[in-house]
Amino acid sequence: GSVFANVAQAPEDPILGVTVAYNKDPSPMKVNLGVGAYRTEEGKPLVLNVVKKAEKMLLNNPSRVKEYLPITGLADFNKLSAKLIFGADSRAIQENRVTTVQCLSGTGSLRVGAEFLARHYNKRAIFIPQPTWGNHPKVFTLAGLSVKTYRYYDPKTRGLNFQGLLEDLNMAPSGAIVLLHACAHNPTGVDPTLDQWEQIRRLMRSKSLLPFFDSAYQGFASGNLDADAQSVRMFVADGGECLMAQSYAKNMGLYGERVGALSIVCESADVAVKVESQLKLVIRPMYSNPPIHGASIVATILKDSSVDKAYVFLCFLREMYREWTIELKAMANRIISMRQQLFNALSARGTPGDWSHIIKQIGMFTFTGLNKEQVSFMTREYHIYMTSDGRISMAGLNTKTIPHLADAIHAAVN
Ligand code: PLP
User: What ipTM score was computed for the predicted complex, to two decimals?
Assistant: First the structure.
């Protein structure tokens, strides 16, 4: 017999498992609204034009090699990533207080950050929003942190439970780590207003709570890269410290390339140097060094934004950064238009209940408020696949599938 005969069958991942079930369904009407990946109006995955261009440039470069990157990844990529999230004029960057390491997309960045904290930060507790992305508690627990939650979502208003959030952070022990979604909170699509962010910032700084930002949707929420980074920049502008996990999966459509970055904003350049030396010790035994291709694509596109202002109008290169922002805005706009169309379709059917949260929520997902039974009814009768918490990916919808989804929701709540 096998030495592994006693290994128990593990359950499917709750998010990726939705796609497994979808793939098994032979129905031609089936719709997958489970996974957080962008689809075109035709329901196809999208490779951005600017990404294709960057790849062509990379392939045509005769000096291109496949050597190992340093443990910390591609230096240009790291610099440009920090600039993208913290802003071109960030004082923290100018003062060399930021260390950035290339990691395996958002997940890998969160994990490396968490491993670093578990080794070098004297507080174990990390407070994550309730609810949050399903992988958060696992990543932090396995890194050795102790996961606690703070109230975030109010099912009654389908909006932010701001009072609950403030109360819970106020009760958190001084110095605790707090995970914050930079924008487009997953799964709820509910973000604090800028005014609420400012109150959160003040409370956290007054209690020395350490912010750990997860930025998986910069540019995807509003269509504007700077607008979606405002929460983060408020925290960095006050001179305090924080961690930042960045992903290029959604905003550049580089999902499978696994390209992301972890930045740690430190109090001084001196601290940043030491922190980076320890990040290397975390990374080296985990995967040695990160992959080169995706980071080269990102660096090629972002480099354009750093071309000297005087050359901007002469330089054709700058076009790539601009083209990216246009393609990004088009993705964001399509999602926003899906929200409006779904809302209109439910209004037209006279579906009972208030569905305005569909247009108020932001980012890739709508937290519909549908319960487990309603979700399984929609899967069984309408072949619509989504996570059991009622989260649907707006990016998976198109003009053709919206009437079908609206029919399903209408039937489920009636
Ligand atoms: N954080 C949040 C909130 C997410 O929604 C996701 C992806 O769905 C990630 C992080 C990480 O994604 P990736 O590792 O593909 O960059």
Answer: 0.99
